[in-house]
Amino acid sequence: MAKTIGIFDSGVGGLTILSSIVNEISDSVEYHYVADSLYAPYGSKSIETLLERSRRITEFLISKGSELVVIACNTATTQVISFLRAEFNIPFVGIEPAVKPAAQLSISKRIGVIATANTLKSGLFKQTLEAYASDCEIFTRIGEGLVEAIETGELASVELNELVRDHVAYFNSNEIDVLVLGCTHYSFVSLLFERYLDQRTSLVTPNEAVARRVQSILRTLDSSAGSVRSIHVYSTSEKLLSLKKLIAAEDLRVDQVLQVQI
Question: Are residues 259 and 235 in contact, defined by beta-carbon separation less than 8 angstroms?
Fold first, then answer.
């Protein structure tokens, strides 16, 4: 049986994680990605809703043969990954704001983190700050409006430009030297962040670290690599055009894009 990886996010943001994983892994792996766009954004959902959605999507991914599930969503990771690990007998790889590398990179020890409300108030995020950035001053901001704007697939829109510029202005005014993108959606507009950030400010995402972790776990699985790489993308929303635009933006060669009811 070919190695099969399941990935899900509240919407399209996790496509940036999928792209990083595909670039990291040379084996011909079968990928199944679920964009739960009908229920996006996750950032303001209750933990009960997040767990119910994550559980149903995990069951769907397992039905597709997934032996490993990547939760390509900071909010879902911080809120429910421990419950999923207890319920399902497969490995999970989560994602959380890249605070550790940011703290190592920062010279001024003034770090910005932009993420959803649920991520920023989570216990896991606070533990990460205490463990890796206790010597840093942290400036956090909820990325209001960004997920919804990115979900439309119109990455060059005036609205999205203005949103990013407004959020970045807060961080520039606080003279940070590293900004952590704490939501996978934001990676789609990393170039916009770089455009408006002070030139001395670095941008950090966890994408490459997650891809390396997936590669490490993949080596421990009993199944062998397939003969052909395949990528299957599913959305819980009927609005597939915006999803296809963002697949193209990530230069992913996808076998199929389907709407599913999960």
Answer: yes
**pLDDT tens digits along 108-117:** 999 999 998 8
d(CA 109, CA 138): 8
State how many domains the chain has.
Answer: 2
Contact, 189 vs 151, CB < 8 A? Answer: no
Does the predicted model carry a pTM greater than 0.85?
A: yes
CATH code, domain carrying 69: 3.40.50.1860
Sign of the C-alpha dihedral computed for residues 43, 46, 47 and 52 taken in this order: negative
pLDDT in tens, 228-260: 789 999 999 998 999 999 999 999 999 999 999
The answer to whether 183 is a known catalytic residue is: yes
Check if the beta carbon of residue 43 is closer than 8 Å to that of residue 117.
yes
Given 68, 73, 84, 120, which residue is catalytic?
Answer: 73
Catalytic residue (choose from 21, 22, 183, 192): 183
Residue 27 to residue 25: CA distance in whole angstroms = 6
- Rounded Cα–Cα distance for residues 198 and 203 (Å): 11
Domain residue limits at 186 = 99-205
